Amino acid sequence: MKWNKLLCEKRFKQSSNEAYEFDERNEFDKDYSRIISSSSFRRLQDKTQVYPLKRGDFVRTRLTHSLEVSHIASSIGKSIEKYLQRGDQKISSLLSVTGLIHDLGNPPFGHSGEYIIQDFFKEYLKKSGYDNILTNIQKEDLLCFDGNVQTFRILRKLQYLGDKDSYNLTYATLATIMKYPTNSVEGNKKDKGKLIERKFGYFDSEKSDYDKIFEEMGIKGKRHPITFLLEAADDIAYCVADIEDGVQKKFITLQDLKNMLKKIGRKSLEVQELLEKIKEYEEKNKEIENSSLFEKIVVQKIKIYIQGKMIQEVIKSFIKNEEFILDGNFNKELLDDGAYKEIKDGLKNLAKNKIFQSKERVFTDILAAKVLRKLLNIFIEGMIDWLNNGEEASLTSRNIRVLISENYIINYESELKECKNKGDEIYTTLKLCVDFISGMTDQFAVDLYKKLQGISE
């Protein structure tokens, strides 16, 4: 892999925007401009990061998380540029925009929403008999629905801006957000296969786009090197921020954090240094130790300290393993290669045990399942009726079609024209319903569910 080819500025079509005399942006800065004011990005403000349907100005949403990832990723990129002696700022710009868009495809209710959609299709495909009609890849696309994969689909097709190329982003941007460049049959091997086979990166409906991008860049079947940095920035942003939000919501205490560190790091120099830092921050804020602010401030300081250390670890690991990464032979995440792996894993487990298994979270997950399963049933039933009967479909089915955003209908009709058989048409119709529902915000999904169920406010 060569850096100039990896930073490919090619697009699916030539930009029709006017060229200005004073515009010093590179092509990845222009990608950023296309995303930052878009409706898909704005919807992240009402999508779950950890706490669904929560109003407040402290806990994070997908939007604030994405802004944090973008900032951390860009910071890492500047250090890599210095190491590579690149003065064009293209790596940091590429990381900035991909940090911004990496969660664009997440459904309502976060990862819970993904699992609900997956579980729905496990039952639906058998009950409907479509498991005998769809291809293996089409079935796995639905059974293994993933928000990261949906991101690629949104960026390529689902934001209608006058033509079929959606945002028309650069090849490098589109390649970088694909963590696992395999299809749903070759991937989804969890921890059994190579790193790029743990999940998958593109739906069958976007295979031709994947082929075109990765062949042009000479990295087919390999992860883009910048993706390692993006994934690290995502981990750095959320593994500590989830703890900070947990303390704010009183699901986690400072003592919980200290107990976790003592448990995992009796022999770890990094853990011992972190415990010393906690003591230092506690001493500096001793005058407010009886205040509700005490733990919040100490944890906020710890977050900044840990994130700074993790950023250094990621940069060192990338520099050390650059040759293997460029050859496509590096088979682990950058944070798993450094001294902070234990701390990262410990923080994730603490959040899992204290937040994701809390009663409050369990109740919202039950609500999420009820809402999303009902919406999927209603829209799929209506659109399959429409597919089979057109204008002769029931009035309810015709009305269901009207409720789906025109953005999605335009792409649906375009994809239907390319279908070769009935199985392709069913797959395309099921994908339409998933596109629409997974694109909803948490609150919109709940409100639409109530309206369709006749539940008054």
Automatic annotation (TrEMBL):
Gene Ontology process terms (BP): dGTP catabolic process
Domain HD/PDEase: 58-248
Coiled coil: 257-291
Transmembrane intervals: none
InterPro entries in UniProt: dGTP_triP_hydro_central_sf, dGTP_triphosphohydrolase_C, dGTPase, dGTPase-like, HD/PDEase_dom, HD_domain
Keywords, ordered alphabetically: Coiled coil, Hydrolase
SMART domains: HDc (SM00471)
Keyword Transport recorded: no
GO terms of molecular function: dGTPase activity
PANTHER family: DEOXYGUANOSINETRIPHOSPHATE TRIPHOSPHOHYDROLASE, DEOXYNUCLEOSIDE TRIPHOSPHATE TRIPHOSPHOHYDROLASE
Name the UniProt record assigns to this protein: HD/PDEase domain-containing protein
Organism whose genome encodes this protein: Cetobacterium somerae ATCC BAA-474
Taxonomy of the source species: Bacteria, Fusobacteriati, Fusobacteriota, Fusobacteriia, Fusobacteriales
